[in-house]
Protein backbone atom coordinates (compact mmCIF):
# COMPACT_ATOMS: atom_id res chain seq x y z
CA UNK A 1 0.00 0.00 0.00
CA UNK A 2 2.75 2.46 0.93
CA UNK A 3 4.81 1.46 -2.12
CA UNK A 4 2.09 2.61 -4.51
CA UNK A 5 0.67 5.48 -2.49
CA UNK A 6 3.98 7.22 -1.80
CA UNK A 7 5.52 6.62 -5.23
CA UNK A 8 4.80 10.16 -6.40
CA UNK A 9 2.24 11.50 -8.82
CA UNK A 10 0.54 14.83 -9.39
CA UNK A 11 -2.02 14.51 -6.54
CA UNK A 12 -4.55 16.31 -8.74
CA UNK A 13 -7.57 15.08 -6.80
CA UNK A 14 -6.51 16.13 -3.28
CA UNK A 15 -5.15 19.38 -4.70
CA UNK A 16 -8.56 20.03 -6.26
CA UNK A 17 -10.19 19.32 -2.91
CA UNK A 18 -7.98 21.81 -1.06
CA UNK A 19 -8.45 24.44 -3.76
CA UNK A 20 -12.22 23.98 -3.57
CA UNK A 21 -12.12 24.51 0.18
CA UNK A 22 -10.29 27.78 -0.36
CA UNK A 23 -12.77 28.80 -3.07
CA UNK A 24 -15.51 28.26 -0.49
CA UNK A 25 -13.55 30.46 1.95
CA UNK A 26 -12.75 27.52 4.19
CA UNK A 27 -9.47 26.61 5.87
CA UNK A 28 -8.09 23.84 3.67
CA UNK A 29 -6.54 22.09 6.68
CA UNK A 30 -10.04 21.21 7.85
CA UNK A 31 -10.64 18.98 4.82
CA UNK A 32 -7.28 17.19 4.72
CA UNK A 33 -8.74 13.80 5.79
CA UNK A 34 -11.17 13.79 2.87
CA UNK A 35 -8.50 15.06 0.50
CA UNK A 36 -6.20 12.21 1.58
CA UNK A 37 -9.01 9.69 1.11
CA UNK A 38 -9.35 10.78 -2.52
CA UNK A 39 -5.70 9.92 -3.15
CA UNK A 40 -6.08 6.57 -1.39
CA UNK A 41 -8.96 5.70 -3.70
CA UNK A 42 -7.17 6.96 -6.80
CA UNK A 43 -4.12 4.84 -5.93
CA UNK A 44 -6.29 1.76 -5.41
CA UNK A 45 -7.78 2.30 -8.86
CA UNK A 46 -4.33 2.55 -10.43
CA UNK A 47 -3.15 -0.67 -8.77
CA UNK A 48 -6.16 -2.55 -10.10
CA UNK A 49 -6.00 -0.88 -13.55
CA UNK A 50 -2.41 -2.10 -13.94
CA UNK A 51 -3.23 -5.75 -13.18
CA UNK A 52 -2.72 -8.38 -15.91
CA UNK A 53 -6.49 -8.89 -16.19
CA UNK A 54 -6.97 -5.17 -16.86
CA UNK A 55 -4.31 -3.04 -18.61
CA UNK A 56 -1.36 -5.34 -17.80
CA UNK A 57 1.11 -2.49 -17.34
CA UNK A 58 4.56 -2.88 -15.80
CA UNK A 59 5.33 0.77 -15.00
CA UNK A 60 3.45 3.31 -12.89
CA UNK A 61 4.65 6.62 -11.44
CA UNK A 62 8.13 5.85 -12.72
CA UNK A 63 8.57 2.52 -10.95
CA UNK A 64 7.41 -1.11 -11.34
CA UNK A 65 3.68 -1.51 -10.80
CA UNK A 66 2.44 -3.01 -7.56
CA UNK A 67 1.78 -6.48 -8.97
CA UNK A 68 5.24 -6.56 -10.57
CA UNK A 69 6.88 -5.63 -7.28
CA UNK A 70 4.78 -7.77 -4.92
CA UNK A 71 2.76 -10.22 -6.94
CA UNK A 72 -0.75 -10.10 -8.33
CA UNK A 73 -2.36 -11.46 -5.16
CA UNK A 74 -0.80 -8.84 -2.89
CA UNK A 75 -1.61 -6.06 -5.37
CA UNK A 76 -5.31 -6.97 -5.38
CA UNK A 77 -5.35 -6.94 -1.59
CA UNK A 78 -3.43 -3.65 -1.44
CA UNK A 79 -6.03 -2.01 -3.68
CA UNK A 80 -8.91 -3.42 -1.65
CA UNK A 81 -7.33 -2.23 1.59
CA UNK A 82 -6.67 1.29 0.27
CA UNK A 83 -10.34 1.67 -0.65
CA UNK A 84 -11.49 0.56 2.79
CA UNK A 85 -8.87 2.72 4.50
CA UNK A 86 -10.13 5.80 2.62
CA UNK A 87 -13.55 5.56 4.26
CA UNK A 88 -12.13 4.60 7.66
CA UNK A 89 -9.81 7.61 7.48
CA UNK A 90 -12.65 10.06 6.81
CA UNK A 91 -14.96 8.54 9.40
CA UNK A 92 -12.20 8.64 12.02
CA UNK A 93 -10.52 11.97 11.32
CA UNK A 94 -12.80 14.27 9.33
CA UNK A 95 -14.34 17.01 11.49
CA UNK A 96 -17.52 18.93 10.74
CA UNK A 97 -21.26 18.50 10.92
CA UNK A 98 -21.92 14.71 11.01
CA UNK A 99 -24.65 14.92 8.37
CA UNK A 100 -22.33 16.82 6.03
CA UNK A 101 -19.64 14.17 6.50
CA UNK A 102 -22.15 11.43 5.72
CA UNK A 103 -23.41 13.31 2.65
CA UNK A 104 -19.85 13.73 1.37
CA UNK A 105 -19.06 10.03 1.92
CA UNK A 106 -22.28 8.93 0.24
CA UNK A 107 -21.36 11.01 -2.79
CA UNK A 108 -17.83 9.56 -2.78
CA UNK A 109 -19.17 6.00 -2.62
CA UNK A 110 -21.52 6.68 -5.54
CA UNK A 111 -18.79 8.34 -7.58
CA UNK A 112 -16.49 5.34 -7.18
CA UNK A 113 -19.02 2.51 -7.50
CA UNK A 114 -21.24 1.00 -10.19
CA UNK A 115 -22.66 4.39 -11.18
CA UNK A 116 -19.22 5.96 -11.24
CA UNK A 117 -15.61 4.88 -11.58
CA UNK A 118 -16.11 1.09 -11.44
CA UNK A 119 -19.05 1.31 -13.85
CA UNK A 120 -16.85 3.24 -16.25
CA UNK A 121 -14.08 0.68 -15.88
CA UNK A 122 -16.57 -2.07 -16.73
CA UNK A 123 -17.64 -0.23 -19.88
CA UNK A 124 -13.96 0.16 -20.78
CA UNK A 125 -13.31 -3.60 -20.66
CA UNK A 126 -16.65 -4.73 -22.08
CA UNK A 127 -17.33 -5.11 -25.77
CA UNK A 128 -20.29 -2.72 -25.79
CA UNK A 129 -18.92 0.81 -25.44
CA UNK A 130 -21.04 3.95 -25.25
CA UNK A 131 -19.66 7.17 -26.65
CA UNK A 132 -16.29 8.16 -25.24
CA UNK A 133 -17.60 11.09 -23.23
CA UNK A 134 -20.08 8.87 -21.37
CA UNK A 135 -17.43 6.23 -20.68
CA UNK A 136 -14.85 8.65 -19.34
CA UNK A 137 -17.40 10.75 -17.47
CA UNK A 138 -17.77 7.65 -15.30
CA UNK A 139 -14.29 6.12 -15.33
CA UNK A 140 -12.26 9.31 -14.87
CA UNK A 141 -14.64 12.19 -14.42
CA UNK A 142 -16.65 11.04 -11.42
CA UNK A 143 -13.69 10.85 -9.02
CA UNK A 144 -12.31 14.16 -10.29
CA UNK A 145 -15.75 15.69 -9.80
CA UNK A 146 -16.06 14.14 -6.35
CA UNK A 147 -12.86 15.94 -5.37
CA UNK A 148 -14.84 19.16 -5.74
CA UNK A 149 -18.41 18.22 -4.94
CA UNK A 150 -17.53 16.27 -1.77
CA UNK A 151 -15.87 19.38 -0.36
CA UNK A 152 -18.98 21.40 -1.19
CA UNK A 153 -21.14 18.84 0.59
CA UNK A 154 -18.77 18.73 3.54
CA UNK A 155 -19.06 22.51 3.77
CA UNK A 156 -22.84 22.53 3.53
CA UNK A 157 -22.67 24.26 0.15
CA UNK A 158 -24.65 23.55 -3.03
CA UNK A 159 -22.77 20.71 -4.71
CA UNK A 160 -24.99 20.78 -7.82
CA UNK A 161 -23.72 24.26 -8.65
CA UNK A 162 -20.32 22.71 -9.35
CA UNK A 163 -21.61 19.82 -11.49
CA UNK A 164 -21.07 21.39 -14.96
CA UNK A 165 -17.50 22.36 -14.07
CA UNK A 166 -16.78 18.92 -12.63
CA UNK A 167 -18.12 17.18 -15.71
CA UNK A 168 -16.10 19.29 -18.13
CA UNK A 169 -12.92 19.07 -16.08
CA UNK A 170 -13.09 15.28 -16.14
CA UNK A 171 -13.49 15.27 -19.91
CA UNK A 172 -10.59 17.70 -20.31
CA UNK A 173 -8.35 15.55 -18.14
CA UNK A 174 -9.09 12.45 -20.23
CA UNK A 175 -8.64 14.11 -23.61
CA UNK A 176 -5.23 15.42 -22.55
CA UNK A 177 -4.38 12.00 -21.09
CA UNK A 178 -5.17 10.36 -24.43
CA UNK A 179 -3.01 12.91 -26.26
CA UNK A 180 -0.09 12.33 -23.90
CA UNK A 181 -0.38 8.57 -24.33
CA UNK A 182 0.62 9.18 -27.95
CA UNK A 183 3.00 12.14 -27.64
CA UNK A 184 4.63 11.60 -24.24
CA UNK A 185 7.55 9.45 -23.14
CA UNK A 186 7.80 6.74 -20.50
CA UNK A 187 10.00 8.96 -18.35
CA UNK A 188 7.69 11.96 -18.54
CA UNK A 189 4.50 9.98 -18.05
CA UNK A 190 5.84 7.61 -15.40
CA UNK A 191 4.02 4.80 -17.22
CA UNK A 192 4.34 3.05 -20.61
CA UNK A 193 3.75 5.36 -23.58
CA UNK A 194 1.27 4.02 -26.13
CA UNK A 195 -0.44 1.69 -23.65
CA UNK A 196 -3.94 2.47 -24.94
CA UNK A 197 -3.00 1.74 -28.55
CA UNK A 198 -1.36 -1.57 -27.62
CA UNK A 199 -4.56 -2.66 -25.88
CA UNK A 200 -6.76 -1.53 -28.77
CA UNK A 201 -8.66 0.94 -26.62
CA UNK A 202 -10.86 3.62 -28.09
CA UNK A 203 -9.46 7.03 -27.22
CA UNK A 204 -10.04 10.59 -28.33
CA UNK A 205 -6.93 10.27 -30.51
CA UNK A 206 -7.98 6.97 -32.12
CA UNK A 207 -11.49 8.33 -32.74
CA UNK A 208 -10.72 11.88 -33.86
CA UNK A 209 -7.00 11.92 -34.67
CA UNK A 210 -4.30 13.86 -32.85
CA UNK A 211 -5.26 17.22 -34.35
CA UNK A 212 -8.93 16.61 -33.65
CA UNK A 213 -8.21 15.63 -30.04
CA UNK A 214 -6.15 18.78 -29.53
CA UNK A 215 -9.02 20.89 -30.87
CA UNK A 216 -11.41 19.10 -28.53
CA UNK A 217 -9.07 19.75 -25.59
CA UNK A 218 -8.98 23.44 -26.44
CA UNK A 219 -12.78 23.59 -26.56
CA UNK A 220 -13.13 21.58 -23.36
CA UNK A 221 -10.69 23.87 -21.56
CA UNK A 222 -12.71 26.93 -22.58
CA UNK A 223 -15.92 25.21 -21.46
CA UNK A 224 -14.38 24.25 -18.12
CA UNK A 225 -13.22 27.81 -17.46
CA UNK A 226 -16.68 29.15 -18.32
CA UNK A 227 -18.38 26.59 -16.04
CA UNK A 228 -15.98 27.47 -13.22
CA UNK A 229 -16.76 31.17 -13.61
CA UNK A 230 -20.46 30.36 -13.28
CA UNK A 231 -19.92 28.13 -10.22
CA UNK A 232 -17.63 30.61 -8.46
CA UNK A 233 -18.74 34.11 -9.52
CA UNK A 234 -16.58 35.63 -6.78
CA UNK A 235 -13.50 33.96 -8.22
CA UNK A 236 -11.55 30.75 -7.60
CA UNK A 237 -8.02 31.58 -8.69
CA UNK A 238 -6.42 28.30 -7.66
CA UNK A 239 -9.07 26.23 -9.44
CA UNK A 240 -8.49 28.38 -12.51
CA UNK A 241 -4.77 27.60 -12.32
CA UNK A 242 -5.42 23.87 -11.86
CA UNK A 243 -7.77 23.87 -14.86
CA UNK A 244 -5.06 25.51 -16.94
CA UNK A 245 -2.48 23.03 -15.65
CA UNK A 246 -4.66 20.05 -16.61
CA UNK A 247 -4.93 21.51 -20.13
CA UNK A 248 -1.22 22.24 -20.56
CA UNK A 249 0.33 19.36 -18.59
CA UNK A 250 3.03 17.25 -20.21
CA UNK A 251 2.89 14.22 -17.90
Automatic annotation (TrEMBL):
Q: Name one GO cellular component term.
A: cytoplasm
Q: Where is the signal peptide?
A: none
Instruction: Note the InterPro entries from the entry.
Output: Isoprenoid_synthase_dom_sf, Polyprenyl_synt, Polyprenyl_synt_CS, Prenyl_diphosphate_synthase
Q: Can you cite a GO biological process for this protein? A: terpenoid biosynthetic process
Could you cite one Gene Ontology molecular function of this protein? metal ion binding
Question: Which cofactors does this protein require?
Answer: Mg(2+)
Query: Could you tell me which Gene3D superfamilies the record lists for this protein?
Result: Farnesyl Diphosphate Synthase
Query: Among its keywords, does the record have Metal-binding?
Result: yes
User: Which keywords does UniProt give here?
Assistant: Isoprene biosynthesis, Magnesium, Metal-binding, Transferase
Instruction: Please report a single Pfam family linked to this protein.
Output: polyprenyl_synt
Q: What is its EC number?
A: 2.5.1.10
List where the protein spans the membrane.
Answer: none
Entry's PROSITE patterns? Answer: POLYPRENYL_SYNTHASE_1, POLYPRENYL_SYNTHASE_2
Q: Which family does it belong to?
A: Belongs to the FPP/GGPP synthase family.
- Protein name per the record: Farnesyl diphosphate synthase
The species this protein was found in: Capillimicrobium parvum
Output the lineage of the source organism. Bacteria, Bacillati, Actinomycetota, Thermoleophilia, Solirubrobacterales
Amino acid sequence: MRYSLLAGGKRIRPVLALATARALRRDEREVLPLAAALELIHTYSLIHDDLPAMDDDDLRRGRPTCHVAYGEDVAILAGDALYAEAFRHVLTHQTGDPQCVIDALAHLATATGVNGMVGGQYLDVSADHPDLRELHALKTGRLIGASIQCIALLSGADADRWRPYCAELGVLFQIVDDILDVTGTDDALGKPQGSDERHGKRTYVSEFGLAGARTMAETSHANARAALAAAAPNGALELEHITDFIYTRTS
